[in-house]
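Give me structure tokens for this 352-residue protein.
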Amino acid sequence: MDRFELRRLDYSLTEDHKDLIAAYRQFFDTHCSIETVWAAEESGFDKSLWERLCAMGASSMALPESAGGDGATLVDLTLVAEEIGRAVAPVPWIEHVCAARLAARLGVADPEIVSGARILGLDVRAERPGGPRLIGSGAVAEEIIVADGDEVVLLGYDTRAPRVDNLGRLPMAWIDPATADHRSVLAAGEEALAEYARALDEWRILTAAALAGLVEQTMTVAAEFAKTRYTLGVPIGTLQAISHPLANMAIVVQGGRNLSRRAAWFLDNEPDERPELPGCAFVFMAAEAAQAATMAVHIQGGLGVSTEAAATAYLVRARGWPLVAGDPGQTAQAVGRIIAQRESAGDPAPAA
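Here you go.
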């Protein structure tokens, strides 16, 4: 891919990108069936799946070569995130790679973090009032990175916190920085907080990409059901009340996918040009994924609302995953402030 293609709104993928997608899709098709997802709901984490995923290089690919990784671009990572969302895989990959990339930028290059043998957590909330906070991977992460005032801090606990039941079926736990058994300041000051803010933007982009993959899969399941279910002698998929929502889901998938890839390209190449894009991608998919997954449940009728249906597994995650960062409305407000500040400053409109 030419480095300027996404800037010009050309979302075509190279053969290498297609091979990357195919490899991870095959991996999850083989190792992450819906039964695997259900089996991990109590803990929110499948250790065996995580180890297999890391052995495939999913953790190391995300880190720069200077830190011992493979130097994948953020666009590359969105492709992996889509496949994780498609499989609703019970692994904290997004949070780990965002935290690991942040640690690498701040000078921490631990081989165990690079390989995924040590899981890092990240406080991804836009607002940080202090005190205890819910961390998406808090029940399984060995260490957690948080922002504390003007410091970026690595916290360690001798005993892992108990998992808190949550809508997204994540290994979420309450973490209190004040009770950490080990605390080390990675960096402090404006530059450190800017790097932390970038990690949050990366999390928003990858979460948006994962939600796009989730919607595509739940759309596929609903479409297959609509093709085989008949009423009045015709497949229900021929009825506008079914076909139009399915078409809307396809639009959501393509729009969310393109927006997350575009946001990833700008954050990697021109981070100051379109700083609102990570938030835009996240807010769009947080809203649309929940609506699409709800419609997929409705299309499947009584089967869709049963706890044994795959549609339900996708619905709760579509609603729960974005809430790790708190209210998505806060991100929407931040996007509005960025755009308002740019417009009020009289800056020229960014290139399309």
